[in-house]
Amino acid sequence: MSNRAKLLTAAGAAGVVLVVFAVWFFVFRDDAPAAVNLEDAVGSVTSTTEANTPTTVGTADPTTLDGTWTIDTAVGGGVVEQSSFVGYRVQEELATIGAKTAVGRTTALSGEFTFEGTSLTVGQVLVDMTQLTSDSDGRDNQMRRQALETDAFPEASFVLTEPVDLTAAPEPESSFTANATGDLTIHGVTRSVTVPIQGQRIGDTIVVIGTTEILFADYDIDRPRAAVVLSVEEQGEMEFQLFLTRS
After folding, report:
1. Where are the domains of the chain?
2. DSSP per residue over 151-218, as a string?
3. CB within 8 A of 17, min separation 6: which ones?
4. What's domain 32-246's superfamily in CATH?
5. 3-state class of 243 per DSSP?
6. CB–CB of 209/241 below 8 Å?
7. What is the rounded distance in angstroms from the CA atom of residue 108 to the CA atom of residue 155?
8. Model pLDDT for residues 19-48, shown as the tens digit of each residue
9. Are 74 and 83 in contact (CB under 8 A)?
10. The whole model's pTM is what?
């Protein structure tokens, strides 16, 4: 084989590699944010407490959870790499792109929780749905007019209706799992749900994460319609990551 032929063969092989990489990068690669993870969330608080030594608010006993806690969107004065958020995770198929995980999140939320002994007795989370953002402005605009219709239903909420037993939670650095039952309101529809949660207490912060499946029909949510959207599953996941600090 001549040197020219060898060069052409090598160039052709390199071209194939570039095409394969481009197809993977622009079509099959799914760069959606990772699902909520307790270890990662706790790690972000740990890094914060190393930079800023936590102090107990007021005269509260650091060995007990008794009292009122609120959602903190900037744990440790903003040093934390992550923040409290609520969001959705839905599988969709888009024209020219293929299957993709659509993830939208908002950090515009507030909430208050009351602990008595080893029980969470009061809990409420309010979410500004108009601040949901994903990796696509087009998707976000559609959510305002279709599906979640956040222009018409700007707020979602969860209100605890049964006490939650957190036997392990009072111990510093201890983790826990539990089920939180309450009224979930999305798209103007309220339903009773039981949400599995995980959590861990790190210093003066309680980290809580959770994921639960949402069937769109249960909340009168129509799947979005657009030329680029080939299909959207009939259900999605609501996920949340909360950092609680004493109020």
Report:
1. 1-30, 32-246
2. TT--EEEEEE-S-EE-TTTTSTT-EEEEEEEEEEEETTEEEEEEEEEEEEEETTEEEEEEEEEEEGGG
3. none
4. Lipid/polyisoprenoid-binding, YceI-like (2.40.128.110)
5. strand
6. yes
7. 10
8. 433 343 344 445 778 899 999 999 888 665
9. yes
10. 0.79
